[in-house]
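L,D-transpeptidase: structure tokens wanted.
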Amino acid sequence: MNRVPRMLPALVALVTATACAAESVPVPQAAAPVVKAAAVKISATETPQPTQTPSATAKKPKLGIADITPMGEKTEKVGVGFPIIVTFDRDVKDRAAVEALLEVKAERQVEGAWRWVSERKVIYRTKTYWKPHQKVLFTARLSQLPGNTAAKDVSRRFAVGTSNISVVDTRKHQMKVYRDGKIAKKIPISAGKGGLMKNGVDVYLTTSGVHLTMGKKAVETMTSGWLGVTDPKDPRYYKEEIPWAVRISDSGEYVHQSAGYYQYLGRSNQSHGCVRATPAGAKWFYTIAQRGDVVKITGTKRKLDWRNGWSYWQLNWTQWKKGSAL
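Answer:
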């Protein structure tokens, strides 16, 4: 229900075929300022690396890191599906050399791999979900890159929280939420009703696939602007303040409180593509939601594209690894 959020040019066509989206431009991959420090042990003790010589630090680094997502352990806890997204400050010419200097260590290690999605951005995803309730350490030793000795090594430690995995059945109109493997709540929902074709895509259908939560707002303004409808006199026009909105894609899909129409919850699909929930259910889900939580949606003919938001689990493990430079 909104204008198209800013993202890679390759995704513009994908995102314009949106579901329901917000009026404000989302920043789903926002992160805290890069921590330019030496590698950190996963224990509470931090051990700095030897300082570089004055001759090395006097030189200008040819490659640095502009952003790391998600934020560090002191700022947020993340879900078991979370990706590590690293954005460099310029195009990476030797991807293999740089990738070899990126390290991920977890207290409860699982297999993972990097995938390059642009000239400056690389994403780490695990083969299976992270184990909950642990710490994960990311380290980039860019000072070891030939000709880049002036760069500072960078590290960030993440805190994995509770395993929140939600399964949305659009045919049974129900969302089941599992916390650490146990069913915690069943919430009546109403998903996308379908019936509006744009460029061969029914944009009123909710996308089926493995979504990740990307952010949340207690109140989100949703409008018909994404349809090109901005005239209040148009019968298709709407502008609503929607409570308990948890974003699950770049194309504007949310799990949120239904704005009325409670008679359809648990009975039929009537939304513009979002997952509408009861007031109590939506508020509860909003409260527990962490970025990187898993939301599996089933039952629709519209498939989620792996480039739509953080939908990287849409690729199988073999496909994912093909994006590595190593």
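The first helix runs from residue 12 to 16. The chain has two domains: 12-27+163-317, 54-161.

Cheers.
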